[in-house]
Amino acid sequence: MSVIPSSSQSVSEAPKGIVRRYIFSTNHKVVGVQYFLLALIAVAIGIVLSLLMRFHVVWPGAHIPFLSGGIMTPEQYLALVTMHGTIMVFFVLTTAPQAGFGNYFLPLQIGAPEMAFPRLNMLSFWGTLVAFVVMLAAFLVPGGGPISGWTAYPPLSALGSISGPGEGLGQTMWIISIAIFCVASLLGAVTFIATTIDMRAPGMKLMRLPLTVWSWFVTAILILMAFSVLLAAGVLLLLDRSAGTSFFIPAGVVVNSQLQNHSGGSPLLWQHLFWFFGHPEVYIAILPGMGVVSHVLSNFSRKPVFGYRVMVFATCAIGFLGFTVWGHHMFISGMSPYSGFAFSLLTLAIGVPSAIKTFNWLGTIWGGKIQFTTAMLFALGFVSLFVTGGLSGLFLAQPALDMVLHATYYVVAHFHIIMAMAAIFGIFSATYFWFPKMFGRMLNERMGKLHFWVTFAGAYCIFMPMHFLGIEGAPRRYADFTGVNYLEPLAPLNHFVTIAAFVTGAAQLIFIFNFFWSLKYGRRASRNPWNSTTLEWTTDSPPPPDNFGGRSPEVYRGAYEFSVPGAPEDFIPQNLPPVKAVPAS
Amino acid sequence: MMVSYIYSFGQHEGRVSARNHPQRNQKSARGSAAPAVLFALLIIILVAFSAYSFSARAFRAPAPITTPGAALDHQYNLTLYVTGIVFILVQLALAIAIFRFRDRGQRARFSRGNNAAEIIWTSVTIVVFIVLAFLGRKVWAESRLASPTANAIRIEVTTSQFVYNFRYPGADGKFGRIDPNQISAATGNPLGLDASDPAGKDDIVAPELTVPVDRPVELLIRSQDVVHNFFVRELRLQQDAVPGLTIPLQFTANRTGRYEIVCTQLCGLGHSRMRSFLNVVPEAGYEQFLKQQAAAQ
To answer: A137: which residues sit within 8 A by CB, 6+ positions away?
Structure first.
């Protein structure tokens, strides 16, 4: 463990000038806030896209004013599908919990004045922003946005505009955007890993790290390994499209009666590469949320995390096993049915550390003194959603059952509950918890709670009925439900889902209002409004540019010392030295 | 842990701990029973609604028309019971904890964990998961790993944007060669049957899949352009059609009827309109179908 470099003095004062201070800043807190705001814009766009989709599914013939042509075409719908998935997975679920809160709080929680590579870190954000702009621009090019989904399976994504509108320039821009995003994420991941290993304050042993830091650290390793594979795959796909190679296109492909000049490639190769990235990506999205939830549950139950060490091992186990289960996305893809056994068993194996975490969360709140702050409500909501989404995964983990549920709305329900909703609840929990530290003011709790109740009920109202659509055999990514006879009786379910989606979407306006209102009018936050134990609460709200005002905190104890018998308060900050420890009589 | 802690606040970190002092005015925001009751109530509604709607089978696929399909339904039900019980227990435990341990001014019970509990719930989870995996494995093997039946009727399924074509080998029992250069939907040769191959002369190409009841059928699934899918919910079978691969899929339908075939793999703008029908007909009807088609080709 290294001592804080002496150069830390030089960062104790913020650079002069608005540009260096707030825009091209190398300060990890500015980068963190930038990532957070980017995710906020992205999630707003992503929600609007999903509402347009839900609207179209229920009222396919309706006139939509700002749409060219007025009535949504199937290719416009599929462009929404693609962009909604891409924006949410990459620019929200990967950025907010990891790059946003991780950037802001990783150095603060380990007692470091800065990230290990501040310039790489800044570059990471600006690369991500460029990727986001390129992604949105794909909507505006001739042919519109790509229609191949966020998974971009070739040959559909590899053949160019002959295979569909949006598959020309739109798809190319999608690939370029993803490639830039990959590079930017790799820079950020390297920074996270080096910072965690090298810049912990004296006394901050690995087993004293907050579980948030553990999850950001493991997630950074996952990003490093997964995004490098996606980057390579993206480059290959780009070559197939523009340089005449055939990594993913076999011989004899005929589109519109035109024989394509390719041979020797395999569409399944892309699926293997993509899901080798894509499954760890699920954990990249959810692990930071798990860390936040462990942290918040402990804080507002006034109890130590139940089984801290087990939680650390479970986090590492999930990270490791996450790389061995990609094939469960491919049970019916045409890969050997024998490999279905292996992937099925490994997938159920990864359920074990996930179940352990759930039990430990229950163990943490059991016997506690639960304070229902909004942050705590979202953390508890996370646990409920995680259980629900995890259990529906036990069906999909079995190749036989996947044969009827694959690519139906059942899958949409499953991954939205566990990956999207649970991860978003983790983000909201983190936002309500850390907003006072980041901006020096409290978020309004009354509005926060209203936001929570509608969102929690809404999340279930939207996604529980989708299980039923899937069980009935309704395929996902259908622009309309009128082409298949057996889907027509399902219309009432779809209406219900759409209405629930609009109500829940509207409830997010409460959050947006609360966010900006509280920035200006919120009650001023003290250093430690939640009576927390970790290092970020020992400095000002918001912290000075070098985090701890030129001094380096020393750490004497674990991260979750709540309600320790004999202590005068029900929490003991990590930096509080034990003056005297006497054996109990 | 036979150590009790004595701390001196106000020496080393005095500035910090003074400001760390709890904000005692927040009782109303935290200690109220209302959020605990509301939360517990929402979870109970969720559990009741889910338990009812899954067990009442208000929504379900129609009965399967194959033997492995029935076994699959059995495995589905078993998984539903197992996950259903866990779902109810864990969600209710959460609701109970939320209600019972709400802040009423009590002191939290200090505990860092319990190794015995960790070992028990980890072991139970592992056993349940392994049992599920092995039972599910049998069903998968039954439908996907059985060796091809010698007397199975072989039918080639070719997908392309946004149609299914079904090819029967005709009287000679042999599929004719395919030449991608000769593919032309406009001239009535959507599959690109090579005109120079005599084996292809009697091949039958139809837009719907017609099979006799109670006879083993082996489909050979191909794709001409992008990845498509063959899904018939009554067969409990779903298989991607991948360009460059010919993927076998077997079934024996045991009930006559007309069933929808849909595409579940995103294949382009016509994805939601890509469908066909599976007609399961009596033996005599099947012979008649073949005769009619042969005459029409």
So the answer is: A173
Task: Confirm if B250 and B66 have CB atoms less than 8 A apart.
Answer: no
Round to whole Å and give the CA distance between A295 and A317. 19
- How confident is the model at residue A116, as a pLDDT? 95
CATH topology of domain A31-250+263-538: Cytochrome C Oxidase; Chain A (1.20.210)
In sequence order, the 6+-apart residues with CB closer than 8 A to the CB of B264 are: A406, A407, A408, A475, A476, B229, B231, B238
Nearest CB to A401 within list B16, B79, B87:
B79
Write out chain B's pLDDT in tens, 297 residues. 333 343 433 333 333 333 344 444 444 444 578 999 999 999 999 999 999 988 887 788 899 999 999 999 999 999 999 999 999 999 999 999 999 999 998 899 999 999 999 999 999 999 999 999 889 898 999 888 888 788 899 999 999 999 999 999 998 989 999 999 999 888 889 999 998 999 988 999 999 999 999 999 999 999 999 999 999 999 999 999 999 999 999 999 999 999 999 999 999 999 999 999 999 999 999 999 999 998 887
Rounded percentage of chain A residues whose pLDDT exceeds 70: 96
Beta strands in chain B (DSSP E): 3-6, 153-160, 163-168, 204-206, 209-212, 217-223, 228-232, 237-241, 247-251, 257-262, 275-281
Side-chain-side CA neighbours of A502 within 13 Å: the count stands at 11
DSSP-derived secondary structure for A222-254: HHHHHHHHHHHHHHHHHHHHHT---SS--TT-E
Q: Kindly state the helix (H) or strand (E) to which residue A365 belongs, with its residue range.
A: helix A337-365
Contacts of A444 (CB under 8 A, 6+ apart): A514, A517, A518, A522
The domain spans of chain B are 32-101+116-144, 153-296
| Signed CA dihedral, B85, B86, B87, B93: sign only | positive
Q: Does B143 touch chain A (CB under 8 A)?
A: yes
Query: So what's the pLDDT on residue B26?
Result: 47
In chain A, where the domains are located: 31-250+263-538
Report the candidate in A536, A551, A509 with the shortest Cα–Cα distance to residue A12: A551
- Residue A274 with chain B: CB contacts under 8 Å: none
Render pLDDT for A64-116 as a digit per residue (tens, 0 to 9): 877 777 889 999 999 999 999 999 999 999 999 999 999 999 999 999 999 99
Distance from CA of B269 to the nearest CA of A (A): 5
Over the stretch A106-146, which tens digit does the pLDDT of each residue have?
A: 999 999 999 999 999 999 999 999 999 999 999 999 889 99
Peptide bond before residue A155 is cis, with ω within 30 degrees of 0: yes
H-type alpha helices, A5-149? 18, 28-58, 74-86, 101-110, 118-137
In the β-sheet with B228-232, what is the strand arrangement from edge to edge? B209-212, B275-281, B257-262, B228-232, B237-241
Between CA B215 and CA B250 the distance in angstroms is: 11
The answer for A 389-428 residues in CB contact with B (under 8 A) is 391-392, 394-395, 397-401, 403-404, 406-408
**Location of structure tokens 């054996």:** A583
Residue labelled with tokens 């087993």: A207
Residue A582 clears pLDDT 80, i.e. is over it: no
**CATH fold label, B153-296:** Immunoglobulin-like (2.60.40)
φ/ψ of A373, rounded to 5, equals -75, 165
CB contact under 8 A, B103 and A370: yes
Chain A contact for B117, CB < 8 A? yes
How many Cβ atoms from other residues are within 10 Å of residue A516's Cβ? 10
ipTM for the assembly: 0.92
- Give how far A188 is from chain B: nearest CA, Å: 32
Instruction: Respond yes or no on whether the N-terminal peptide bond of residue A542 is cis (omega within 30° of 0).
Output: yes
Q: How far is B131 from chain A (nearest CA, A)?
A: 10
Alpha carbons A445 and A453: distance in angstroms, whole number: 12
